[in-house]
Amino acid sequence: MDISPYTKDFSKNYLIEGKIPDICKTEKCIAGIDEAGRGPVLGPMVYGLCICPVSKKEDLKNMSFADSKTLNEQQRDDLMQELMKATDYGYLVHALSSRFISNSMLGRTKYNLNALSHDTAIGLVERAIQNGVQIDELYVDTVGDPTKYEQKLKNIWPDIDITVSKKADAKYPVVSAASICAKTVRDAFIFEWKKLNNAEAGSGYTSDPHTKTYLANNYDEVFGYPTFVRTSWATCSKLMDEKCITVSWPDEEDNAKQGKSSLQNYMKNTRQRYMYFNERCLSNAKNF
Hints:
Helices cover 43% and strands 14% of the residues. It has helices at residues 23-26, 57-61, 73-85, 98-106, 113-130, 146-156, 168-171, 173-197, 209-217, 234-243, 252-257, 263-267, 275-279, and strands at residues 14-17, 29-36, 45-53, 90-96, 135-141, 161-165. A hairpin with an 8-residue loop joins strand 2 and strand 3. Helix 3 (73-85) crosses helix 8.
């Protein structure tokens, strides 16, 4: 898959929309959702949604889709090409950048990875429906408790037959196809980033020796890691604590201990009235 239009800025999120066939807008469809890159410390987390008319369900099954993790890179690329050439199937892919993931998890208002995953999956389904897709059945590879996640989705779309399951990518071909979409796009982002940065960074998983070496040697003592690295991961946090310059950011509690004022305290309605008004027994007029 050519993702060159999306590689100008790796710090951004990208929604990649494949062509939605007319048959998916006139016939009832099944849809599957899966992700790739939830665990790695490098690169985007990518969510894929595949759409197939109910009448073409067996044809999709015969294309021999399987969990992307059980296939090699060439097999995944070949299946993705078949999916892109097919006239009866559609797909959507949403790539969430490392920067976005880290900012979400480290922000003042925490946005954990499960909530982020759920919202991304929901966004893909909503986008497909906005594009006119008649989704009748939805199959999702779970994130967190499958029962709770399934109920959450049913509350949003009570008229859709929804199944959330562990290992859904190994059970349902439409989820396997979504897994292929997500994995091939993530692999393409990793490839392009390595090429542009001449980086030997391995697979992006912290268990990969090449990734470990990259993290150990590619940091700035002040600014930390490039935006392609998920700095919210414990591996990065530990390395930055050990190797980077420590920066202290006084918070409200520190200010209070030191007897200092703060903007938040200033904005609270706790200021005393000026002595001028107290000495003259002046008060606010309430009635005119």
